[in-house]
């Protein structure tokens, strides 16, 4: 009797549990996916389903793929109604903002003892798997994934089309001055799969120091917005003393994620509607210059208002000496 294979499918920000037999083939898998998601088999792109490095044919038996139980399968694909809507969408779509308008004076929580205690617990209990060694005298860049580095809910048909333009150029330039950390509000397995998909984990021109997942986050309560999960940079600072508010910057498309460190966060313009915007999005290219200016001219990143990064003008060396 053939064995049962359990697969965890990730699509459009949701996870689906699929159970099939080893004797079933890839087409059977696609039909089951259609039942659960509504995406037709011909629209499905099963990104990390491989046989000898290539996408398997529809008649390939699942048993031949030697999938581990609860295999994490990532899919791109669009519903017919979404494709129709995308093809008729106007070119001047307004920017979609997925954020809470959080001001420092509204939510002064970064120094509250209850949250500092939570950070201390994360410092003690959360285990970081180092991917590459930290380098002396480097700054720290912490990056979100979804809508920051790629659009995970697009009608794009390939991984390259999901990727934000200039991603590898941006990371290559940033790596000259910064150790780079990826922090996503998802599970570690999904982070690893996304970094493989984007070619980040294997790019020879830069190295990622480590990943942080949702387990490194903490929950905070605000009177206006209730309970929120956030990314406190203090977790990193507590584990690696060479980093602090003076030499750390975090990019995220959602401002509330850096509510514990409002002076070290930069809300990046979300990369959405990749099929419409990939040809004119140059946010990472422009931010590369900003990171270079900070690294070379700023001794305290927390002293800069990162909301106005586009207008940032580095102080001259004589001006910096006068302040010291």
List keywords for this structure.
27% helix; alpha/beta; protein serine/threonine phosphatase activity; coiled coil; globular; five-stranded parallel sheet; Rossmann fold; Ubiquitin-like_domsf; four-stranded mixed sheet; EC 3.1.3.16; single chain; Ubiquitin-like (UB roll); 2 domains; 324 residues
Question: How would you portray this structure in words?
Answer:
This protein is of the alpha/beta class and about 325 residues long. The protein has 2 domains: about 5-80, Phosphatidylinositol 3-kinase Catalytic Subunit, Chain A, domain 1 (Ubiquitin-like (UB roll), Roll); about 115-324, HAD superfamily/HAD-like (Rossmann fold). About 25% of the residues lie in helices and about 20% in strands. The strands form 3 sheets. A 5-stranded parallel sheet has the order 7-6-5-10-11, with helices on one face. The longest helix has 15 residues, at about 285-295. GO terms for molecular function: metal ion binding; protein serine/threonine phosphatase activity. It is found in: Nucleus.
Question: How much of the polypeptide forms β-strand, as a percent range?
Answer: 15-25%
Output the CATH topology of the largest domain.
Rossmann fold
Which superfamily, in CATH terms, is the homologous superfamily of the largest domain?
A: HAD superfamily/HAD-like
Number of strands: 11
What is the helix content? Answer: 25-40%
GO molecular function: metal ion binding; protein serine/threonine phosphatase activity
Catalytic activity: O-phospho-L-seryl-[protein] + H2O = L-seryl-[protein] + phosphate; O-phospho-L-threonyl-[protein] + H2O = L-threonyl-[protein] + phosphate
Coiled coil: 102-129
Main location: nucleus
């Amino acid at each position: 009797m053939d064995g049962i294979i359990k697969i965890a499918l990730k699509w459009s920000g949701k996870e689906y549990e699929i159970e099939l037999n080893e004797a079933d083939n890839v087409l059977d898998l696609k039909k089951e996916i259609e039942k659960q998601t509504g995406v037709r088999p011909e629209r499905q792109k099963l990104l990390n389903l491989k046989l000898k490095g290539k996408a398997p044919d529809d008649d390939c038996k699942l048993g031949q793929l030697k999938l581990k139980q609860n295999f994490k399968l990532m899919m791109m694909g669009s519903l017919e109604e979404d494709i129709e809507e995308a093809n008729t969408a106007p070119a001047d779509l307004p920017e979609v903002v997925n954020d809470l308008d959080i001001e420092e004076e509204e939510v002064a929580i970064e120094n509250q003892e209850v949250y500092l205690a939570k950070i201390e617990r994360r410092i003690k209990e959360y285990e970081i798997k180092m991917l590459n060694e930290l380098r002396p005298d480097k700054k720290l860049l912490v990056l979100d994934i979804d809508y920051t580095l790629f659009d995970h809910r697009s009608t794009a048909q390939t991984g390259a089309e999901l990727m934000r333009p200039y991603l590898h150029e941006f990371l290559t330039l940033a790596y000259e001055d910064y150790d780079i950390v990826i922090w996503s509000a998802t599970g570690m397995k999904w982070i690893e799969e996304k970094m493989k998909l984007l070619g980040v984990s294997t790019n020879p021109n830069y190295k990622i120091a480590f990943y942080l997942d949702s387990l490194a986050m903490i929950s905070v309560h605000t009177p206006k917005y209730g309970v929120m999960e956030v990314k406190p940079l203090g977790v990193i600072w507590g584990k690696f003393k060479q980093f602090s508010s003076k030499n750390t910057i975090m990019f995220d498309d959602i401002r509330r994620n850096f509510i514990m460190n409002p002076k070290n966060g930069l809300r990046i313009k979300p990369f959405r509607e990749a099929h419409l915007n990939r040809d004119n999005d140059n946010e990472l290219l422009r931010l590369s210059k900003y990171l270079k200016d900070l690294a070379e001219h700023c001794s305290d990143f927390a002293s800069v208002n990162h909301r106005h990064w586009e207008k940032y003008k580095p102080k001259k060396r004589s001006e910096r000496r006068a302040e010291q």
